[in-house]
Design brief:
Layout lengths: L4 H5 L4 E2 L4 E2 L4 H5 L5 H12 L2 H11 L9 H15 L3 H5 L3 H5 L3 H14 L3 E5 L4 E5 L6 E5 L1 H14 L15 H20 L8 H11 L13 H27 L18
Antiparallel strand pairs: 1-2, 3-4, 4-5
């Protein structure tokens, strides 16, 4: 599900069939135990894929299982061996929860992450290998989220937090051949993302500081009431308007080919 622009910039939670998803405000992120570090940890849990999970486990070796019982360790290793024996098509059709559900080191922070972005109470059920959603005044779950539904829910959460997710869900493929193609495309995209170096200038705290210093009405005191998506959207608008201002001055001073300025440029659409 791809969210439209109106839903992305809205301050209200997005009502879904299963639950309600919110784009958190900066104030809500600031209230987290370790503030932006915790927020980014939550996002990383939603972005964690099976291959990265197993690579991290392999790098840590036996130290990964510190605090686990021998039974828990052997179960995780057994599932890893079973996953390694799957064909590429079978792996593409395996949901993340089918793997992560047996590892509390992953399930616990994943549940915490989902709890932050959802309006309802959410609990993981190891017996059902599903997440249970509870209403405000309900002692019993009002619905459940399985592995396939989790993938769609995470995509919506990431979109509301201005995180680009262009990977396709192989679980929705019509056949094994299509699933294999989708998985290869996703792996290629992830490889490109990992090779790209992060730009410190585009980190959220720096963007908050830049907007607060330059905006005519948003400052370091009231910016905290904006949602994450609204902050990134405002930042993009400010960049667009800066370019427009430079263009106006350039044409006024030196002219251009047609001696005209497109005065609609300041409200050009920003693609989500």
């Amino acid at each position: 599900m791809t969210l439209d622009y109106a839903l992305l910039i809205s301050p209200s939670p997005l009502q879904l069939n299963l639950c309600s998803v919110r784009s958190p405000t900066l104030r809500e992120i600031d209230a987290l135990p370790d503030k932006f570090n915790t927020y980014h940890m939550y996002l990383s849990m939603l972005l964690l894929d099976i291959d990265t999970y197993y690579k991290n486990m392999e790098l840590q070796g036996d130290s990964y299982f510190a605090g686990y019982t021998e039974k828990e360790k052997q179960q995780i290793l057994s599932i890893r061996a079973e996953y390694a024996g799957l064909t590429e098509e079978q792996r593409a059709l395996t949901g993340r929860l089918d793997i992560f559900g047996f590892d509390r080191k992953i399930v616990v922070p994943l549940t915490q992450a989902l709890s932050f972005f959802l309006c309802e109470k959410i609990i993981y059920s190891p017996e059902e290998n599903e997440f249970l959603i509870f209403g405000a005044e309900s002692a019993d779950p009002v619905c459940t989220i399985n592995s396939r539904q989790l993938s769609e829910l995470e995509s919506i959460i990431l979109q509301l937090n201005a995180v680009s997710v262009n990977t396709m869900d192989a679980a929705d493929a019509k056949n094994k051949t299509a699933a294999k193609i989708i998985e290869k495309l996703n792996k290629r995209k992830k490889a490109k993302e990992k090779s790209a170096k992060p730009d410190p200038k585009l980190e959220l705290p720096n963007i908050i500081s830049a907007i607060s210093a330059c905006h005519s009405s948003i400052n370091i005191l009231n910016i905290w009431d904006l949602t994450v998506y609204q902050v990134y959207d405002l930042f993009a608008r400010m960049q667009q308007n800066t370019i427009f201002d430079v263009l106006k001055m350039s044409v006024a001073a030196w002219g251009n080919k047609d001696n005209k300025v497109d005065f609609t440029q300041w409200f050009e659409c920003i693609k989500p």
